[in-house]
Design brief:
Pfam families: Med23 (PF11573). By secondary structure, the chain is mainly α.
Length: 1264
């Protein structure tokens, strides 16, 4: 083949001598020349036809080599022949172009050859498929690199030839390849332009994608959340910067460890160093030092320092950060700065980590602290005086001396003979601590000062000195053998906060060991109240989680259970119910599983213990956060029986209600819990009344409709009770009675019989089944009652059963009544019974009033809780069985009032479902609402209630107001001033707030989130919320939902804060306000945040015509319109939509796709409208997951509508760039068939641009 080609080339280039001699005088016949070229073309085709790939490479190399040595005319001829070979199919266009562009003989020195080669590429590049075009562009860039940086006039033609090829590739109208791919290639492969001559072309091309980048960027995202790295579009610079501010903000929030690890992809199992965490921990320490310096009062920043020590321990312990790195970085940051006020707090933070880890790590890891000491405690200053040891601050002021003692102890352990002289600055402190150490035989006793804490902190790594002060701490709460009675005063939070983590770990270890020993001894000795209360306080420290809550769930409870120490178990469950805060949902669900197992053992059949187990389980179920339900419970879907009660219908109903509430609040699809519901239906088959099903999310309502349970015939129930009564009357001795009613499987009608004659108790577990029938019997009796005296007699008898004969407790009876599935008038009767049982007799009301009057919910600040608790139980002793003299187990925290709270929650919800009983609910709230002072999550409960029953409560403003006043009666100061004023106004007053109110409310949220108005006095360790941000968000939502204005007015008021009230907002804070509005709206029910969709529709209708003389991309650009004071209606609306959807949950995001599909086709007709839609939804494409297919379909259909409606389209390129972005980032070719059908209907210019999506050829486009 090579020889054949050589012959053809020789023939082409052969010149006769006479022709060469008379070249100036010869005239060539055009026909003859054309004929010759045609023959040569045939010969070249014949020579190359059938050649292998390798042979073609050799032939092309030979062809180009010959061409490179030719003069201008023959070279042009050869290039024309090569072009013809491509066009007639002998050679592939991509093959020729790539071979030419990568050829080593293509050098700018051979100017004619270079120019002709690039001309050839330019002519045939249309025939190359798009991936080949991308490779040719790469080749052009590489060849451009070979051009000198300084171009003389002789090199201009070569440069121009290359430039023309690049221009053709980048020509948007030529559409040789998807521009989205090319811009990606240029940004990744050539971040620096290969030659300055191409710079303008490259810059303009990349710049043309800014419109697409704008459409997929969240407005103000840099101040909300970072963009995913490795972007392919030219995003605004602030979106590509490291989001250090965000990380610092999250790190600064209490209880943020999980979120930080999630953001950075950190896993405790894998030791991975993270420099970002190190840097931001240092930043936060410096910030804390600056705040302490500015405040002048260390107490004002105490909470921040406590939190920082916890964060430092966690991230260093799991090796995400390095302690020496942090200390050295602090040294360099603080050098030359005079920040002295917070130095003791800083040393306290470092002491926390050092005391707990110095024994397991080399001394060299901790020596950098000495450099920091020299910097912050200069020698020229006088020695540090001994602080006042009656004040907790003394532990901070002596922290440096404690560090010194730990370091010298470690140094002696590593190098036996070393002695470090005590620095003169610390000598007074050191001597004072030495004098505190007791002589050999002397014991230590805990006083009201902090000397014991100082000793523990200084000598926790020296057992010779540590055992006595720790023993003093333990004896204070445990009691010594000489103690007359067990101690009741726990260690205060001030004392616990003054102990290092290492000391706290020793203390909690001593407590747990003592409890386990006591349980194993089976001596019947009770735990001291001081020990139990102190233990519960220690469990709030997240830095000792492994010994704390983890040890409680996985070690202590199983050991106590194994030892059958039921009294201790009772106490621990009470502690969990009434004293535990911020327990990770993982542990909650784990304990729930344990409790279901425990409920099945025979010993738990004792009434009081069974009641305690069920009450704890009820609190665990109802206390699960809406966002935690699906992630936590779905881990048990393989074994759902572990979290479903085998026999308690009430607990399973409470679980169903929690599932319904969580599904509703998160907007999730409830189908995930089908298996769980099936297990519940199997364990305890039950039905729900229509008024309850009406409130259920669709998936749950459908499940219970499909799994209907046969209704019990109430007449038959009455007959059965009469029959049992006759049997009872015929029995003469106790054996017959027990044989009939005590056998397993006997009809559960005994309580119904007690309705006639009250007698002895039955087993606690069986009681529940009897209680359900009894409740049904009660409702039937009342429904058919003649009224008046008979009703009074019935209620008095029930009250006797509760208070006189102790057959059933009021909380169990009311819970059972509230959860029966009564319908219609019977449901109202049931509510009436509940009201009478709770309020007609004075027993329960008196207890509530007395308890509320004498007690405070701030248990962590109290020293005498136990005394008040005992006083209440002396005044109102509780019995759990007829003729019982005293309760079997001594409650430490619980009583009938506190036990009733989760039941009251359910009662309120049941009453809300039945509008006819509104008056009864108001009466209940009036008399018992004061109990909510002791609710562990009052704001969350109210938020869930107002959210879940939004449609039921929408037209009942007085009831909403009553709910807020009752549930938040003790926390009114957390609401805004205008709303507090409204609560204090006349009951019939209607308040419709103006814009000013919404501005004030959003300002509160902004100030708290930015840290300028956070309540530093709140101890978040004992609050229902983890931090100030969560607290202000949910209290604001509660307030907004409780307004009588209604969802539409409230949502519009919030949106108008920016849309109309932007003049009141400081310009530099605008994004913080938009972010706050997004957070609030996303946390409100659908009837509120869907108003945003209506506002977007009205904005779209304004865009039907475009009266402006600038591009929509300018007016949709928030930065430009805001900074330039331009028309901002569109950009502000986009920013608000972005903020709401950015904070929205999965269910809310799914609704956006539906909105685009269902509501926009009737509105979108113009190009500007379509671009507004793209700007709205573009940034959230990654979040649509399964809905991306529907959304993409909807966008193409909208584009087809616009294409039909508009004669001219100006912004085809940015629109097509976005569609390619969707293809390459989200859908690939999965929708090829559907999209092809739409693309074929579009105008040719759009078809040409979108042909790589629809896989159309240029011929097909032209044919259309």
């Amino acid at each position: 083949m090579t020889e054949a080609l050589t012959t053809v080339l020789s023939d082409i280039l052969k010149v006769e001598g006479i022709e060469e001699a008379f070249s100036c005088f010869l005239v060539h016949r055009s026909n003859s020349e054309t004929e010759k070229i045609s023959i040569w073309q045939q010969k070249i085709s014949a020579a190359l036809r059938g050649a292998t790939q390798e042979q073609l490479d050799i032939a092309l190399r030979q062809y180009l080599s010959v061409a490179a040595g030719c003069s201008h005319s023959p070279l042009q001829l050869l290039m024309e022949l090569l072009e013809s070979s491509v066009r007639n199919g002998t050679l592939g266009a991509r093959k020729v172009c790539e071979f030419v562009i990568t050829s080593e003989i293509l050098q700018h020195n051979n100017s004619i050859f270079w120019i002709e080669c690039f001309k050839l590429i330019r002519k045939i590049i249309d025939l190359v498929e798009y991936k080949g075009v991308r490779e040719i562009m790469k080749g052009c860039c590489e060849k451009a690199k070979s051009l000198p940086w300084r171009l003389n006039s002789g090199l201009q033609p070569q440069t121009q030839a290359l430039l023309e090829v690049a221009e053709k590739i980048m020509d948007r109208n030529a559409c040789l390849l998807p521009g989205y791919l090319l811009v990606n290639e240029l940004q990744k492969a050539y971040p620096d332009c290969p030659h300055w001559r191409l710079a303008a072309l490259f810059s303009d091309y990349v710049d043309s994608f800014r419109a697409c980048a704008q459409m997929v960027s969240i407005v103000g995202q840099a101040e909300m959340r970072p963009v995913v790295e490795h972007s392919t579009l030219p995003y605004a610079p602030e979106l590509l910067e490291k989001q250090t501010g965000l990380l610092r903000y999250v790190l600064e929030q209490p209880y943020s460890r999980d979120m930080v690890c999630g953001m950075l992809g950190l896993n405790k199992q894998h030791k991975q160093h993270c420099q970002a965490i190190e840097e931001q921990l240092v930043e936060l320490v410096v910030l804390a030092l600056e705040r302490t310096e500015a405040e002048g009062d260390e107490q004002a920043t105490q909470g921040l320092w406590l939190h920082l020590s916890s964060q430092l321990i966690y991230f260093v312990l799991f090796q995400f950060a390095s302690f020496p790195n942090i200390v050295m970085s602090l040294h360099s940051r603080l050098h030359g700065r005079d920040l002295r006020r917070g130095r003791d707090q800083l040393m306290w933070v470092l002491l926390q980590f050092i005391s707990g880890s110095i024994q397991r790590n080399p001394l060299s890891n901790f020596l950098p602290v000495l450099k920091l000491y020299e910097l912050l405690f200069p020698e020229q200053e006088p020695p540090l005086p001994v602080p006042d040891f009656n004040q907790p601050q003394c532990t901070r002021q002596m922290a440096m001396t404690c560090i010194w003692i730990h370091l010298t102890k470690k140094a002696q352990a590593e190098q036996a003979n070393i002695t470090w002289p005590v620095p003169s600055k610390l000598r007074t402190h050191h001597d004072f601590l030495q004098h505190l150490v007791p002589p050999n035989n002397a014991a230590l006793a805990m006083g009201n000062d902090y000397r014991i804490a100082l000793l523990c902190n200084a000598y926790s790594t020296n057992q010779d000195y540590f055992s006595k002060p720790m023993a003093a701490l333990v004896d204070t709460i445990q009691g010594s053998p000489k103690s007359a009675s067990p101690p009741t005063t726990p260690l205060s939070m001030a004392v616990l906060d003054s102990l290092t983590v290492h000391s706290k770990m020793s203390l909690i270890h001593s407590i747990v060991t003592h409890v386990i020993k006591l349980a194993q001894a089976k001596s019947g000795m009770t735990l001291s109240p001081a020990l139990v209360e102190t233990y519960s306080r220690l469990l709030v420290y997240t830095e000792i989680e492994s010994l704390g809550i983890k040890g409680f769930i996985s070690q202590l409870l199983p050991q106590v259970y194994k030892s059958h120490a039921w009294g201790t178990l009772y106490t621990l469950l009470e502690m969990f119910s009434y004293r535990m805060h911020h327990i990770h949902p993982h542990y909650r669900v784990q304990l729930l599983s344990h409790l279901h197992s425990l409920a099945a053992v025979p010993q738990a059949n004792q009434t009081q213990l069974h009641l305690c187990v069920e009450s704890t389980a009820l609190r665990l179920i109802t206390g699960l956060g809406s966002g935690d339900v699906q992630p936590e419970l779905s881990r048990f879907l393989a074994e759902p029986k572990t979290i479903v009660s085998a026999e308690s219908e009430e607990l399973n109903r409470a679980l169903v209600l929690t599932l319904a509430r969580a599904t509703h609040v998160t907007g999730a699809d409830g189908s995930w819990c089908h298996e769980l519901l099936a297990t519940i239906a199997q364990s305890t088959p039950h039905a729900w009344a229509p008024h309850t099903l009406e409130c259920f999310p669709r998936a749950l309502a459908e499940f219970f409709t499909q799994h209907a349970v046969p209704k019990e015939n109430k007449q038959q129930l009455k007959k059965a009770v009469e029959e049992e009564n006759r049997k009872w009357a015929s029995m003469n001795n106790e054996n017959d009675i027990m044989a009939h009613f005590g056998v397993p499987g006997a009809p559960p009608l005994f309580l119904c019989l007690l309705w006639k004659i009250i007698l002895e108790r039955i087993g606690a577990r069986a009681l529940s089944a009897h209680l359900r029938k009894f409740c049904d019997c009660l409702v039937f009796e009342f429904s058919n009652s003649p009224g008046g005296q008979h009703v009074n007699k019935c209620v008095d008898t029930i009250n006797d059963m509760i208070w006189k004969y102790n057959i059933v407790t009021i909380d169990r009876l009311v819970l059972c009544l509230a959860l029966r599935s009564q319908e219609g008038s019977e449901a109202q009767v049931c509510s009436f019974i509940i009201q009478l049982v709770l309020l007609k007799a004075t027993e329960f009301r008196n207890r509530v009033q007395e308890f509320v009057k004498d007690n405070s919910p701030d248990h962590w600040n109290q020293t005498n809780w136990h005394e008040k608790h005992l006083e209440f139980h002396r005044q109102y002793p509780e019995k759990f069985a007829p003729e019982e003299q005293s309760s079997g187990y001594h409650p430490y925290f619980g009583n009938v009032c506190l036990r009733f709270l989760p039941v009251f929650d359910i009662v309120v919800h049941r009453f809300l479902e039945i509008p006819q009983v509104t008056k009864s609910l108001e009466i209940l709230l009036e008399h018992l609402g004061c109990l909510y002072k002791f609710h562990d999550r009052p704001v969350t409960y109210l938020y869930n209630t107002l959210h879940y029953y939004e449609t039921k409560l929408r037209d009942r403003p007085p009831l909403k107001r009553r709910l807020v006043a009752s549930v938040l009666g003790n926390l009114k100061e957390t609401l805004s001033e205008p709303y507090q004023t409204f609560l204090g106004s006349a009951p019939d007053e209607v308040w419709v707030p103006e814009l000013d109110y919404y501005i004030q409310l959003v300002r509160r949220v902004v100030e708290v989130l930015s840290g300028s108005n956070a309540n530093s006095m709140t101890d978040w360790r004992f609050n229902e919320f983890p931090n100030a941000g969560a607290h202000i968000l949910y209290t604001s939502c509660v307030e907004l939902m409780a307004l009588s204005a209604g969802p539409s007015a409230v949502a519009n008021g919030l949106l108008d804060v920016v849309a109309k009230g932007f003049v009141m907002i400081p310009s530099e804070e605008i994004h913080q306000w938009i972010n706050a509005i997004g957070l609030i709206l996303a946390a409100l029910p659908v009837s509120y945040w869907s108003v945003l969709h209506d506002r977007l529709l009205s904005t779209l209708s304004e865009l039907e015509t475009w009266p402006f003389d600038c591009s929509p991309f300018r007016l949709f650009d928030f930065k430009e319109t805001h900074a330039g004071l331009l028309h901002n209606r569109f950009s502000y609306m986009l920013a608000l939509a972005h903020s709401v959807w950015h904070h929205a949950g999965p269910g809310q995001i799914a609704s956006v796709s539906r909105w685009v599909r269902e509501c926009l086709p009737s509105v979108v007709r113009s190009e500007e409208q379509f671009l507004f839609v793209c700007h709205s939804v573009g940034p959230f494409l990654p979040r649509f997951s399964m809905a991306i297919v529907d959304l993409t379909n909807a966008l193409y259909e909208l584009l087809a509508q616009v294409d039909q409606a508009q004669a001219e389209m100006k912004y085809m390129d940015p629109i097509c760039d976005l569609l390619y972005h969707i293809k390459y980032m989200f859908i690939g070719d999965s929708m090829k068939k559907e999209l092809e059908a739409v693309v074929r209907k579009l105008r040719p210019q759009l078809q040409l641009r979108l042909r790589f999506i629809a896989h159309l050829t240029i011929e097909e486009v032209h044919a259309s």
